[in-house]
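User: Some background: our group keeps a shared notebook of sequences we're curious about, and every so often someone picks one and asks for a predicted structure to add to the entry. Today it's my turn. The entry only has the sequence so far, pasted here. Could you supply the structure so I can complete it?
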Amino acid sequence: MASFHEHRDKTFSTLLGDVRVEIRHYYQCDHCHHGHFPGDAALGLAGRRISLGAEAVVTLAGTLTNFGQAARKILPKMAGIRFRESTVERTAEANGERLGKLWEQGHTMASARDWHWNRDARLQQVAYISIDATGVGQQGLGGTKVE
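Assistant: Of course. Here's the predicted structure to add to the notebook entry:
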């Protein structure tokens, strides 16, 4: 059974800047001495120094260009946050590994459903997809060009 042991502070990086939490309750198992912070888990911060929102933006930036440019140019401009290249690399790669494992287990990012497919100028069914977080060109009605 874990009992309250002490308060420990920690600084987390968020999209709104660094947030220092000074009163974090640290519990430790009386038997094995393993400790944890229940409050961190409730906030989705267990084992992290980056909030979930900041992590998502760091991961996206790391997929747009190389990790160095993501750290030096993209993140400060996109979100006003600064991380080192190594943090961008570790964060993006860890999330890529998690996503890969989910796909290997058969998980999808949305529920399965039937799609209403568009038709092109030759009335062929078409779908437009993007796999690299960029825009996707599409045809308008009757095969016309659309923005």
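Suggested note for the entry: The helical segments are 38-42, 52-64, 67-79, 85-104. The mean pLDDT is 86.
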